[in-house]
Specification:
Strand order of the largest sheet: 2-1-3-10-4-11
Shape: globular
Radius of gyration: 20 Å
Order of helices and strands: HEHEHEHEEHEHEHEHEEHHEH
Number of helices: 11
CATH topology of the largest domain: D-Maltodextrin-Binding Protein, domain 2
Number of domains: 2
CATH class of the largest domain: Alpha Beta
Strand content: 15-25%
CATH architecture of the largest domain: 3-Layer(aba) Sandwich
């Protein structure tokens, strides 16, 4: 009888009720933009559903994630989070939810590359010159980021680890002020998403040295930048992915309906076009399936945990 009831519930889902997608960051940022694009693309495959974005920022995305983890498991409250989902277990060890046990995984949405950039006055014209400059200035380099647990912070930690060089982290309340100080020469380096760095590279307000992907990018402004792997940092790869989640215990028929809608959204031409303008690559592999998504996040947790612990950092 329970199975029949769940099936009937899924058949009616979402009905006249609004679906709320929690974005655990402030409005106007890259993840918020992805969330709003995705909401628009999900409406049609979910029967012209009303989909609302709820911005719930704070504590490295754990406040918004907790809201979804403890929401009613009925499909009407979902979470869109980025790579921060894989760092929460280490950054927020006292969080009142488990990333791997308190969510249903619905699929990865996209991957956003990152670029290594520097203040415009830094005396290095290519990556080899940058590496030499870093070696000559150990202990004197300021590495900016958009806040503890942010994408730029995580990329910076990995870069320091790969270079075996300590740099002074300088955390800001968001990407905007960090970029402003980089342009002004108050910090030396930053590693951030192409969605944030490409306009600055185009305007020649920063120096760009490398990308964090396995292969070079095809975007005209970035295609000549080498990958960090090319430059000798073996296996260095960082992309900022976004995934969709539901509370644990959401009925399987509803999860399937949402996952089917997600896969349709990822093929929507308007959604694909909007994401490409952000420099994002639409997911099209095993990670769009729930099992592949969860396996991927478990691997990312294992990747980032030792790096974060070695740096001794925790979310605010």
């Amino acid at each position: 009888m329970a199975g029949v009831a769940a099936g009937a519930q899924a058949q009616d889902f979402p009905g006249n009720r609004a679906i709320h997608i929690v974005v655990p960051f402030a409005a106007g940022g890259p993840t918020d933009r992805v969330g709003r694009d995705l909401a628009e693309a999900l409406r049609k495959p979910l029967g012209d559903a009303v989909i609302v974005i709820d911005n719930v920022p704070g504590a490295g995305s754990s406040i918004g994630a907790a809201r979804v983890a403890h929401a009613a498991p009925d499909g009407y409250t979902l979470l869109l989070n980025h790579i921060g989902m894989s760092t929460l277990p280490t950054l927020e060890p006292k969080a009142n939810f488990s990333v791997l046990n308190d969510f249903e995984y619905l699929g990865i949405v996209n991957d956003v590359p990152m670029t290594l950039i520097a203040r415009p006055t830094l005396p290095a014209h290519n990556y080899k010159e940058l590496a030499a400059w870093i070696a000559a200035n150990k202990g004197k380099i300021n590495l900016g980021n958009a806040g503890v647990g942010s994408a730029s912070h995580l990329c910076g930690l990995l870069y320091q680890s790969a270079m075996q060089t300590e740099m002074t982290p300088v955390s800001y309340k968001g990407t905007g002020p960090a970029i402003i100080d980089l342009i002004g020469g108050h910090i030396d380096l930053m590693c951030d998403q192409t969605t944030n760095t490409t306009p600055q590279i185009e305007a020649k307000k920063v120096n760009a040295y490398a990308v964090t992907t396995a292969q070079r990018l095809t975007a005209p402004l970035l295609k000549d930048l080498p990958t960090l792997q090319e430059e000798g940092l073996k296996d260095f790869q960082v992309t900022i992915w976004h995934g969709l989640y539901a509370p644990k215990g959401t009925p399987a028929p509803i999860l399937k309906k949402i996952n089917d809608a997600l896969k349709a959204a990822l093929k929507d031409p308007d959604f694909v076009s909007r994401e490409q303008t952000l420099g994002a690559v639409i997911a099209a592999d095993a990670r769009v399936e729930p099992a592949g998504h969860k396996k991927f996040v478990a691997g990312e947790i294992a990747k980032w945990s030792p790096i974060i612990k070695a740096a001794g950092v925790y979310a605010d």
